[in-house]
Amino acid sequence: MACFWFYQNEIKLEIPSSEDIGNVTFYKIQVHVSGIEWVVLHRYSEFYDLHYHLVLDHGVSKDILPSKKVIRNKCPEFIERRRKALEEYIQKIFVFLKQTMPKILVDFLCFNVYDSFFLLQDLSSRCFLEADIVLSTNKSYYFSTLEVFNSKAFQLHAISQFLKKTQPLLNNAESRFDMSPVLDLCSQLNVLRVQGSSGTYLKSNIILNKLSFELSAFKNLNILYINNVLFDIIFSLGNIRDTLLELHVANTNTTKVCQILQCDVIHKYNLESSQKWTALEVLDLSNNNLTEIDTTITLVPNLKKLILNDNKISTISNLSSLSNLSYLSLSNNLITICNDLHLKLGNILTLNLSQNNIVTCKGFSKLYSLENLDLSSNKITEIDEIKHIGGLPCLENFILTGNSVAATVDYRIKVLEFFKERAKFICLDNEKPSQAELDKVSVLQALSIIKEGKTPKLTVNTAN
Amino acid sequence: MSAGPYNYSYIFKYIIIGDMGVGKSCLLHQFTEKKFMADCPHTIGVEFGTRIIEVSGQKIKLQIWDTAGQERFRAVTRSYYRGAAGALMVYDITRRSTYNHLSSWLTDTRNLTNPSTVIFLIGNKCDLDAQRDVTYEEASKFAEENGLMFVEASAKTGDNVEEAFLETAKKIYQSIQDGRLDLNAAESGVQHKPSQPGRNNLSNDQQGNKDNCAC
């Protein structure tokens, strides 16, 4: 991203061509700042307005703008002539004004969009005006901060740049520049959304995801959403490891958990206690390219809820030491085998393994703490597999739709039968068993007891 | 109301902890099945047992997590402390090392449970008095110093097994009555079931409401 103050003398302005949009001629201004370039389109009348203000407030001489022409202003020779004249004009006034850089010229050339210095200036004045509103609503309406401060990676980069190198401040009265409102807001913010992009930024050659940034300005962050950002560009996390309660990361193409949780560490897998995310309770890494749950997950010792939907994970691993984990979701992954899950997961209450390739339920048989189990859209074909689920004493919700076993005759009754006297507490496929189903289940149970040669015990559960 | 297996008003969660081979699984088996399991295999990870008991006229369902004592399962078993209303800490009176490890078990329990969790110390295998390695007096002193309830029991003969589980339940129930234990807290380890769910849900609910009004 461009930085006006470092390359003040290398800035080049050109108007290489013009464009006809909706019968209006726009002149294409190309701004080059040391490798970075962007395009701004303006029509003549906008030049005219700019000139008017510059003459009024900044002592630009009146006669340097090419004159107005009312008729025949569409002929190509005229446009070409005007293009050259305007190019000369914009170069002239820029040389004249670049020490002061009046706001109107900054806006005209879009420096406030593409240049870190002017972008910050803009941000700062906005923060000065709006920060109090954001922070006061934040206390009562938690979520309003999300809408108000949807920070772009771009702005974060600018802030980080500022923190890295103290930039010269303008002494000009009009553009007095003060970073404190921005830093003040950042330090008090609870919720932050960072939106990156792998493409170029608007009409420039700036690639957002190549701009590194850091988060040390955020002292009180509780919830962080990161979308479409490459994690290697985050070079410091500040103290968010101690403050963050929820971290949501999506669309980053990350294949390893360590790239996220240790993004600021060079030697990954070298777990140190200083890298622990001590407060983090919810970690949502859905929609990435994760292939495994590596040991870095143990850096989140107080994790309660782990969501890893839509990844490429094939085994459940490294979760046994997370003693607070009660919710695990691995929907739409590549899990085929789940053996002895009770050795991999402790006291887990909710487990979502829908849209995987699970064939057998054997590994679930000792996951006694389970209350909600979602196995929809897997490859379970045998009704006998359900007997491993039937013994789970706390299960309340069980989803099995989308498996071929769900197409068997009397599927619901057969499944419920495995739960024996607990059948009536099981909400199967989001539906409580009906009385007719329960009656059939108890008949089947009685039959099987007789088959085993024992006299059925007359416990009257369902009939009364 | 009929005495079906699901007529209970509370669920209490227990965890049984202690060194390998002190008889945790046997205690659970003795309590739930009233039988002694002679060749009890090592617990892999965790086992589970349940029984309905009665305390002060209230039916209470005990959900008991029987954890593996082996060190290699420690990571997994740690998670079961969460939401336990009662912790039964077991040692073997014939093996001093199991008694010596109690303080580390106690630290774990205190760190990972909530303050209202009732901790009960059980000295198991008291039928083997001839091979005794830990005296009743010192264990009872340890219990007193740490504010634990204490009993010596035998999973083999069944002595005091019932009492240990029941006394723990009584203490928890007492905490509920005193208001020391918050039923609404997620990790209290106690669930209140005001009425029997199922067919006569509606009528029971109404009954329950009436009861509330009368108070």
TrEMBL record, chain A:
It comes from the Eukaryota. Pfam families: LRR_4 (PF12799), LRR_8 (PF13855), PX (PF00787). The lineage of its organism: Eukaryota, Metazoa, Ecdysozoa, Arthropoda, Hexapoda. Residues 5-125 form the PX domain. PANTHER family: NISCHARIN, NISCHARIN RELATED. Keywords: Leucine-rich repeat, Repeat. SMART domains: LRR_SD22 (SM00365), LRR_TYP (SM00369), PX (SM00312). PROSITE patterns: LRR, PX. GO terms for molecular function: phosphatidylinositol binding. This is PX domain-containing protein. GO terms for cellular component: cytoplasm.
From TrEMBL, chain B:
One of its GO terms (molecular function) is GTP binding. Its EC number is 3.6.5.2. GO terms for biological process: defense response to bacterium; endocytic recycling; Golgi to endosome transport; phagosome maturation; protein transport. Keywords: Acetylation, Cytoplasmic vesicle, Endosome, Golgi apparatus, GTP-binding, Hydrolase, Lipoprotein, Membrane, Methylation, Nucleotide-binding, Prenylation, Protein transport, Transport. It holds the Pfam family Ras. Residues 193-215 have a biased composition (Polar residues). Its cofactor is Mg(2+). It comes from the Eukaryota. It is found in: Cytoplasmic vesicle; Early endosome membrane; Golgi apparatus, trans-Golgi network membrane; Recycling endosome. Residues 188-215 are annotated as: Disordered. It catalyses: GTP + H2O = GDP + phosphate + H(+). It is a lipid-anchor. Belongs to the small GTPase superfamily. Rab family. This is Ras-related protein Rab-14.
